[in-house]
Write the C-alpha cells for this entry.
Amino acid sequence: MKTKIIRKQDMTGLLNNLIQEYEVFAPVKRDDLVIFDRIGSDKDVSLEYTNSIKPPKEILFPQSETLFTCGSIGDAASIEVPVSEERPRLLFGIRPCDARSFLLLDKVFNEENHRDVYYLSRRNDMMVIAIGCIKPRATCFCTSVGGGPFSSQGSDLLLVDIGDDYIIQVITDKGSRLVEKVGVADAGENKLALMKMVIQEAELSMSPQIKTDGLKEKLDSAFDDPIWGSLTEKCLSCGICTYLCPSCYCFDIIDEVTDSKGERIRIWDSCQFPLFTLQASGSNPRPTNKERHRQRVMHKFSYCVDNYGQVSCVGCGRCVIECPVNLDIRQVLTTISNR
Amino acid sequence: MSELSGQIREAVRKLLRQKEVDLVIGFEAGTLPLHSTPCFIREQQEAERLIWNSFCDNNLAKYLGKRQEKIAIIAKSCDARAIVELIKEKQISREQVVIVGVPCHGMIDRRRAEAELEGKEILEAEENDGELTLKGNGFTKVLKRSDYLCYGCEVCFHRNPVIYDILIGDGVAEKATDQYSDIAEFEAKSTEERWRYISDQVSKCIRCYACRNACPLCYCRECFVDNTHPQWTGKTTDISDTMIFHLMRAFHLAGRCVGCGACERACPMKVDIRKLNRKLVSDVKVLFDYEAGISLDRTAPLATFKPDDPEGFMLNP
Amino acid sequence: MNNPYLPSPMRIEGIVTETEDRNIKTFSLSFLDRGNEAVFKYIPGQFAELSVLGKGEAPFGIASSPTQKGIIEFTVNKIGLLTTALHNMEPGETVGIRGPLGNGYPLTTLQDKNVVIIGGGFGFSTLRALTTFLLDKSNRNSFNNITVIYGARSPGLLLYKDELREWEKRADLQLYVTVDKGDKDWEGRVGFIPAITKEIAPRADNAYVLVCGPPAMIRFTLPVIEELGFPPERTLLSLEMRMKCGLGKCGRCNIGSKYVCRDGPVFTLAELNRLPREY
C-alpha cells in the first residue's frame, strides 16, 4: 500500500483543489448537527466530529428522488427520466463504517439483472476519502461486524490523523491517480510508525460488543422465540433506526401530481412502519412491533447473509444512540445469542 | 432517587402479588449513560428491574392504548396528564389503570449535558443531591442538575401528578414563573421571521415520525399522513410536505398536548417541534383558560362548543 | 443501461366486467410500441407492475397465456387507489407496464405430469393463464390429465364465465366449478373448495397440484391435499404480498430471505416449510 502525507494546514488547499473538479460532500455543522452536505469551500468542513447524524447513504440514495416525469396523467408515452449534468462526486471525511456501507449498497443496487441507473449515475465516478477514527465511541461496534476504526473497505483514500499531519493511505487505483495528480509527499518511516501507533491505540480501545460467531444460525432458529415479544415491546415503530442506518435501503415508489405534471418518486421507507407490509386486502404479515423489529434484525444479520454474503450492519451505532426508547440492537443480538 | 426506586418496586410487588394488575409499565436502567428505558413487568420478581432517576424521560402513557389487561403505570406528572386526556378521549378507562404517581423534579436533557462537554463522550453519569456527575476518558464534570433540565420540564407547573392511585415519595414544590414568555417572545417577531424560523426547523425533518410515535396523544389508527385514499399530503421531504405534517399535527394536538416534550426529545434532527405545540398550548390557555390533562371533568375546548367561545382569532387573525 | 423502473406504455383494447358486483374487471392490453411485445416474454404465473401515471403502480398476476398473441390480460379487483383508477379507465386509454416479474409456474417440471389446479376467487387469474396455456393445442400433448377445481363465493362472482363454458365441453380437461352459496339459477356444485377437493379426490401419482386463493381457502385445502398423498415437493402455491419494486430490493415482500416478487410468487410447499411462517 502506498502512503502519502499532508500537513493539516495544507488540507485546505487540497480540498479547494478538489472542489474545482468534483462535487464535494463533507461533514458540515448545521445547528448542532453534523451532516454531509455539498461544500463550496474548505471553510465549511468540520472534521472534528464523531459521526454525522444522518449517514452519507443519501448522497447515493437520496431520501426522495424522481424516477421519471410525464406530461399528463395517463400519458405513458411522454415519460422523461431526469438526466444529471453533475460533475463526479467526492465524499470527503466520511467514517470507515459508512464507507463500508457503500459496498453493501452496491450489491443491492448494482445487481447483474437489475442495475439501478439512478444509484449508479452517482456511484460510478464517485471518489471516497475516508478518515479513520482515532477516538471510537463506546457505541461503535464496527469491529464486531467485520470492520474497524481504520478499515479501508469502500474507500479510495483513507486519512489517518497523526497530530499535525494526515497520513493518506492509498487504497485504490482511482485514489492513486488522485494523489498523483494533486502531488503529495511520500510518508516517511517515523511518521508511518506514528500512524501504526495511532491505529493500534484506537483498535485496542474497542472491545467486541456482539457475538457474531454462529449468530445467523442462532437467529434463524430463534425466529419463533417468544423473547422477540418482550425485547421489542417498547419499540415505538418510528423510522429512526432505519433512516439513520447507513445500510438500510428499503424504499417505496409513489406518484405525485403537480398541475398537469406527474412524477414517479422513490422515497425511503421503513420496515418499522405498519404500512410497509399492509396489503390492500387489509391483511398484514408483520402487524406488530415484534414482527417488524424482528424483520429488521433478521434482514441485517441473516437474510442479507443469504442474499449478499454479508451482514448489513456496519456497527456505526447510530440506531443505538438515537433510539428514543433505548432499544439497543447490541442487547437484542446478545439476548438472542444467549438463548 | 434510589429511595424512590425502592418505593416503586415495593408498590409494584404488592400490586402484582395481590393480582390487582397484570402488567406494570415503568422504567429500567438503559444501556447508555443518561438513559433509562421503558420496561414491561408481569412477574413480582421482575420488580427489581424498576428504577427511578432523572433520565426517565419517555412518556409511558404512550403504551396504554389498545391493551386488554389491567395495567399499573409509573407516572410522572406529564404521564399522568396524558392519562387524563386518554381517559377523556376514551382510549383507556379509569378502571383499567392503576396510576403510581411520582412527583417530578424534571428530567435531564441529555443533549444539553452533552453540549457542555464539547464532543467528549460521556461514559458514566451519576446523580445525587441536585448534582449530576459525568465521567469519561480523562474527565469528570459535575453539573448543577437543575441547569440541564428538558425544556418541557423547565416550563412545567404541574410537577406533582394531577391524578394517581398510589403516590410515591413526597410532593415537590411547584414552580412559579412567568408562563409562556418564550412564546410571547416568538410572537413578537415579524411574520417573515417566524415563518423563516419554522421553515428552517421543519426543513431538517426526515419523516421518521418519531415525534408522532413518541407522543402519548398521537394514537390515530391511521394518521392523516399515512392516508392514501384520499392522500392529504405528499410523502417526500420537500418542505411543502413536511410543513403540512408538522402544522397539521400541531393543530390536531391543540387543547390536547400536555407539553411533555416527548416529541422533541425523540426527534433525531432536533427540530424545534415545541414551538408550534407550545404556541397552541398557550393560545388554548389564553383563549379558553384551559390546560390539557388537568381535570377529568372539563371537556377539551375543541371538543365542545359554547355560544360565547372566543372567536377573535378566526375573525381577526 | 436498461432502466428497470421505466414502464412501457400499453393501450387498453378491451375491458370485461367479470362479476355481478362490478368490482372485478379484466383488461386486455396491447403494447403501443409493437416491438415491446417480443421483449415481454412471460410464462403463466408471472406478474407485472401496472401503472396509471399520477396514481401509482401495483403488481398484478398476468391473467392471459403467452399463447394468446397480441394482448396481455390482467384481472383487477377494485380495492384501493390504483385499482379504482384502473376501473375508471376506458378502452383506448394508456397504462404503463413493467415486467414480466417473478418466477411463474414451473412448466418444464409439469411436463408429462398430471396437473391439478385449485383456485379460489380472485386468485384464479394466474391459474386461468396456466390452464389456457396447458390447453393450447401446441402444448396439450406435453401434459397428462388436467383437473381444474375452481370456486367462488357466489355464482355472480365467478370469473371468465365464457371460458368456463368452453372448458366444460372439452374432453381433455376435468373441470369442477363450485360456489360457496348458490342462487336460484345456479345448477352447479355448491360447497367449499376443501370439501369439493376431498370429494373429487384427484389422484396424486405422477401429479402436481397448484393452489392459489385466499388465505383461509389455502389453510383448509392444504391438509386435504396432503391426505390425498401429494407430497410438499409437488404442491405449489402462488403467494400474495404487498410489493413495490418487483425486483427484490424495496424490502417488503420477503419471507425469510426469499422475496416473493423475485424468488416467487410460486413456491413449493416444501420450500415454504423451510421458511419462517410470516405470510
Notes: Chain B has a mean pLDDT of 93.
